[in-house]
Amino acid sequence: MSDLISRQAAIDALYDWSEHSMTDAEAWHIKQVIGDIKSLLSTQPDHVADTGKKVADDDCISRQAAIEAANRADYRGLLVEDVKKVTDEVVKELKQLPPVQPEIIRCKDCKWYELPSHKIYENCVRWMKRNGILLPIKPDDFCSRVERREDEQ
Prior knowledge:
153 residues; mainly alpha; three-stranded antiparallel beta sheet; two-stranded antiparallel ribbon; 5 helices; 5 strands; rod-shaped
């Protein structure tokens, strides 16, 4: 999975950091980076791209895209050494953010989970419908094709 971070966590971290011992010019530039981060496209891990399902409650962005936004910010009005200092600090803040953890839904909570009447083993009905064969599963298994049962929400 790619390294995704929460957009709001990135914005909050930079706001918090920008309010401590900075010149007005430096704080203005950090707020510009925050604006650039707000405009980044949301993303999800590659393995769910074909299902279109969201794996996390957070609005996810690529950590690398956020770092690139910091590196291309307009730093006019700052001295060269200040630009490097501000950029390095922003990148440091972004690198320290924890990755977004996808929500893992177990087979037992999936709408395709089925416990047959013989109760010997569970089946994935989706697999059976797509491939014509039974796929024995365990309740705590999981996959990228999961769809939460409606009655579980």
